[in-house]
TrEMBL record:
It comes from Araneus ventricosus (Orbweaver spider). Transmembrane segments: none annotated. PANTHER family: SERINE/THREONINE-PROTEIN PHOSPHATASE 2A REGULATORY SUBUNIT B'' SUBUNIT GAMMA, SERINE_THREONINE-PROTEIN PHOSPHATASE 2A REGULATORY SUBUNIT B'' SUBUNIT GAMMA. GO terms for biological process: cortical cytoskeleton organization; microtubule cytoskeleton organization; regulation of dephosphorylation. It is found in: Cytoplasm. This is Serine/threonine-protein phosphatase 2A regulatory subunit B'' subunit gamma. It comes from the Eukaryota. The gene is ppp2r3c_1. The keyword Cytoplasm applies. One of its GO terms (cellular component) is spindle. The keyword Calcium applies.
Amino acid sequence: MYNDYSMTYLSELENYILELIPTLPQLDGLETSFHSFYVCTAVRKFFFFLDPLRTNKVKIQDILACSFLDDLLELRDETLPKDVQEANWFSAPSALRVYGQYLNLDTDHNGMLSKEELSRYGTGTLTPTFIERVFQECLTYDREMDYKTYLDFVLAMENRKEPQALQYFFRLLDIEQKNYLSVFDLNYFFRAIQEQMKAHGQEPVLFEDVKDEIFDMIKPTDPFKVTLSDLILCGQGDTVVSILIDLNGFWTYENREVLVADNNDEAEV
């Protein structure tokens, strides 16, 4: 038996989940050929959130303390509603969705993603500057991204409010690796948003205005530097990240009052 502070390694957790698959009725429909991809998808969530330093090992007590194991074992329930399954990262529909997205992005069918292929992720509005940083900082093979690296990317994109996701983005935004974001960093990324706005025939928003709004949202301890701690503690780190990396995210922020009004109108109907 492990004690509370024992570690489990990547390969051990992979073996555990592979052996668990036959005991989970909700995974009965998975083809055997997909099992290795399922294990990879499931294990990645544990390590993305519980192994931020990427040591390929996590504490057993951390696994037991988080909800991930509960989410996984929830798949024993044969009557699990469809909406609950879709919201559960470990469910068959969720794993197939993520893997299906990867295959759809892989237009040259070489099993890897290039920068151009990844740029089509989601609404296709992530900036080239951000995509470039992903490929500079994340593990790639001959400048292409494999499925494991893609899973980290998806987990960050789909959980932007979480500290581990904000840590992922902070590493990309901190282009000089100085452990804080300066006005230069913010301008560097927002310039790509301005260029996308021009390309769509929109009048670019002034950086000075956006910079002031970002600092108002974060309220950093040092008025000229944004640390990871500032980004996490402000409670709006996900909004700040979206403004800097995604034209659609920036548009949503800029039109937030209109969108709220529209949602209220729909609720009253």
